[in-house]
Amino acid sequence: MIIPEMMQYDSFFFDLDGVVWEAESALPGTVDFINRLHALGKKVYYISNNASRKRKDFIKALNEIGIQAELDTILCAAYSCSLYLHQNYPLNTKVFVIGREGLIDEIKEAGYEVIDGNSYKNTVFAAHRDFLELEVDPDVKAVIAGFTFDFNYTMLSYGSKCIQSGAKLATGNYDHYDRFGKYNAPSCGCIVDALRCASGVQEFENLGKPNTYLLEMICRRDRLDMGKIVVFGDKMATDIKLAKNYSAASVLMMTGAETRESYKKYDFEPDYVYDSMEELLI
Ligand SMILES: [Mg+2]
C-alpha cells in the first residue's frame, strides 16, 4: 500500500536525478514505491532535463534498478527536442546539434538530418581567418543545444553563424548549473546563453522544465485528468516550478538539490516534502 495522500493522484511524473536515483543507484524506497504505483494501475512517467541520453538509455538504466518502463513514458530533453522538431519542421530538415551521442541519436531517429557538432570537437581556431573560412550549411533551419563536455569555440561559431543566417535555437535543458560537492558545475543553459550572446539573437525555445511543453503534450496525448497529476522533484526552480506552472500537485524530495533551508527561499511552495520515498509506503 501507499499513503492516502498519494492514492488520490492518478498520474505520477518523476524527475530522475536526485529523486529516483543518485549516480544511478536507486534512492531508498523509490523502486518499491514506483512498483506499487504500477500494481495499483497508476500512470507513471519520468520527466528529466538530462539531455545527454536518449530514451532507450533511460529505460535500460531503470530496468537495471528493477523498474519496468515503456518508451513513451520517458520524457527527457532529447525527446522534447525531437517532438519540437516534428511540430515545426518537415522530416529530413537539416539541424545543427551540439550535444552528446544520446541527443544526436534521438534526433536522427526522429527523422532529421543532423550536422553533428562533435565533428568539430577537435577543430581549433588559430586566427579569425578560421572563423571567416568556417563554412556553414545554408540549409540548417534549427540549432539544438544540449550538454556536452566537448563544447568549444568552433561549435559556438558554427551554431552562431547558423542562427545569424535565420536558424532557430532550441534546448531541452536551460539549467545553468548542477551542484557537485561544494561547487556549481556549468550546465546546458550556459551553452544556450553562449549561442545567444555570440549570435546577438536572444529568442530561443526552452522545452525543458519548468516550461510545461512536454507535460502539456503528454496530458493531451494520454488524456490525463489534470486534477490528478503529481510531479516529484528535487529542484524548486525546475521541478516544483513546473508543477506550479501547470497547476499540478508537487512533491519535493529532500534526496537531491534542496535542503530544508534552501527551498524556503522561493516565493512558491511544494504541496508535500519528504525525506525519502520510504515515507510513502505503508
Ligand atoms: Mg533532479
TrEMBL record:
NCBIfam families referenced in this protein's UniProt entry, alphabetically: HAD-SF-IIA (TIGR01460)
GO MF terms held by the record: metal ion binding; phosphatase activity
Lineage of source species: Eukaryota, Sar, Alveolata, Ciliophora, Postciliodesmatophora
GO cellular component: cytoplasm
Alphabetic keyword roster: Magnesium, Metal-binding
The name this protein goes by in its record: Phosphoglycolate phosphatase
PANTHER family: 4-NITROPHENYLPHOSPHATASE-RELATED, HALOACID DEHALOGENASE-LIKE HYDROLASE DOMAIN-CONTAINING PROTEIN 2
Residues the record marks as active site: 15, 17
Reported cofactor(s): Mg(2+)
Positions annotated to bind substrate: 48-50, 209
Keyword Magnesium attached: yes
Cofactor note: Divalent metal ions. Mg(2+) is the most effective.
Positions that bind Mg(2+): 15, 17, 234
